[in-house]
Amino acid sequence: MQRISLLLAGFAPAALWAQRAAGTELWRVAATTLPLPPALGTGGAAAFWNPAQPAIPERASLALEVIETAPTVGASGVLTTARVRVRPLGQVGFVYGRMGIGDLVRTSLSPDPDPGTIAYYTQTLGATWGMALGRGGTALGATVAYQQTHLDAAQSNRWTLDVGARRTFSDAVTLATATHFFSRFATGDASQELYGGLEVRVWHGPLWGTRGVVRGRYGIATAHGFAADHQFGAGFELGPQFGCDLVVAREGSYAQAGWRMVIGVRVGVGRYRVSFARDFGVNDIGAAYRVGLEGRVP
Question: What does the angle CA 53 – CA 211 – CA 138 come to, to the nearest 5 degrees?
């Protein structure tokens, strides 16, 4: 979030590479509402961040998430995923997302804004695949997507190929990694990044007639041209019906790093899962919110 002011000031006259980075920066704004490291997310629209998703017993799933930031930022967006089990290929489907910032106006030396507004949005449409290997402890996935970014009169389009992997050891330890918007081999490209995550089960046992679990998490987002982002979090699960997550992130930047906290709640009702997450903002910018709904077909 603290990079928004730099983004708006520096990307307006950007060349093609900067246009792509401007689109990815909008998705980083969306990621500030994730209550756990992106590489470790499961269910809902998590396939957008890591295509390597664990197998689900249902035949199909459809998820929708809506993101809204503080008025001072003015960004909003939507994510949707659909996946169907196709034996023996695993799960195939599509992902779509759109993020934009509204109410950007032109200014000159006059105190009054110039006529017209500045269009600034990015959208991504892709096909995704995932498969669980063996007894489900290992999952692999890939997403091929087409991304379009529009900033004022300039526009950039590109194809991306992302891959992900996840390995769970007896539900006690999970390792996960994924690329995001990968389009070229580079470690300092601001238009793409690499995610990694580690999850450790701290405690589990019977609780209130079901099974309770407490997990500790660490995540990293790097290879994007500035200091790495580090995420430290925890999660609590009460059977399949309830879960809550907390992450404290140290956001890297081109200048001084900052800290951000996000909390989320998940509730399962029959074949539906509802989620809500809220970040607490940085530098008095205000909070951002995420609301999600997932439905599964048995």
Answer: 25
